[in-house]
Write a structure and sequence with these properties.
Blueprint: E1 2-4, E2 12-14, H1 54-66, H2 73-93, H3 102-113, H4 123-137, H5 151-162, H6 166-174, H7 201-213, H8 225-246, H9 250-261, H10 266-279
Antiparallel strand pairs: 1-2
Helix pairs in contact: 1-2, 2-4, 3-9, 3-10, 5-9, 6-7, 6-8, 9-10
């Protein structure tokens, strides 16, 4: 079912027809809609069955990724596919997937979107991929809390961010960027002073909330030219990040904030989410952001 609306009109819904394909048994019908991407549901059942060997194959793939520097690129790529996609299958086979919150779905989808990047065999790509896949695999370990870490805290941070005045939100998100590196001056044979480390997202949000409640405006730029320019750059970046973050589905916003809170620059975290939503189409996952066959607009200003 598709829903379309404007700010002033009631919700309008259109229903897609049911897929008319069936399996070897004519009574086995496809559960999806007509023209859906990927295989029909009756061809996907194997992925959702318990397979005692699947977990062993995942562990073997993770072991391969741990030694990626000594292997051929095609072996690393195959191991990345097994580690991530079999983990996704295992979540569904164990009925864990449907119980996960939206932000954890987004985290797994982001992981799936990074699989093909492993073919470059770079440690900076493969190591985080293996680490994140192993973390997802803990969801079926004994004593698991049933969700990925830090999601609840990210929801709290997102709620606080969305209730901040626009100017304060831009200041907070703009400050979540790569720390400036120490650079050697071209004029003097010395190093420029190190820029102060950026505050954690938790601290930045907490301070902004307190000052905004007190009716204070964001602090002015520094007196020196470089400080003034850097402050303006931060706020401009923060405004862009804020606008892009607001356009993501809710679960993706939570997962993006979780990524920022763990140290990913805000602009990179939002860009990763936007890219992932588009890439997962190739795995049969269509969200409103990347969906095909959208109903035609019935008027100007329609949102979907």
């Amino acid at each position: 079912m598709w829903a379309s609306w404007t700010g002033r009109e009631a919700l309008r819904c259109s229903v897609l027809p049911v897929c008319d394909q069936h399996g070897p048994d004519p009574r086995t019908l496809c559960d999806a809609f007509s023209g859906h991407p990927g295989a029909c549901s009756f061809d996907q059942q194997d992925a959702f069955r318990q397979d005692p060997e699947r977990a062993e194959r995942i562990d073997a793939a993770l072991a391969v990724l741990a030694t990626c520097d000594h292997l051929r690129a095609e072996h690393v790529a195959a191991a990345a596919h097994d580690a991530v996609l079999l983990t996704w299958d295992e979540l569904r086979a164990r009925r864990i997937w449907t119980a996960l919150p939206e932000c954890d779905h987004a985290a797994v989808y982001r992981l799936v979107s990074r699989v093909d990047a492993a073919r470059w065999k770079a440690a900076r790509v493969v190591t985080p991929l293996a680490r994140d896949a192993a973390e997802v695999g803990l969801l079926w370990a004994p004593g698991s809390g049933g969700r990925l870490p830090h999601g609840e805290r990210a929801e709290t941070l997102l709620n606080a961010l969305e209730h901040l005045p626009d100017a304060w939100r831009a200041v907070v998100l703009g400050g979540q960027r790569e720390p400036q590196q120490v650079e050697r001056s071209w004029y003097f044979d010395s190093e420029s002073p190190t820029a102060p480390a950026r505050p954690s997202l938790d601290d930045a949000v907490h301070d902004a909330v307190q000052q905004a409640r007190a009716g204070q405006d964001p602090p002015p730029a520094a007196d020196d030219w470089s400080g003034e320019w850097d402050c303006k750059e931060n706020r401009a970046r923060g405004q862009v990040v804020s606008e892009r973050l607001a356009k993501l589905p809710y679960g993706w916003r939570v997962d993006t904030v979780r990524s920022i809170a763990q140290g990913t620059p805000a602009m990179s975290a939002v860009g990763d989410a936007q890219t992932a939503i588009n890439i997962i189409r190739s795995y049969g996952v269509h969200l409103a952001w990347n969906a095909r066959c959208r109903p035609r607009a019935t008027g100007q200003g329609d949102n979907r």
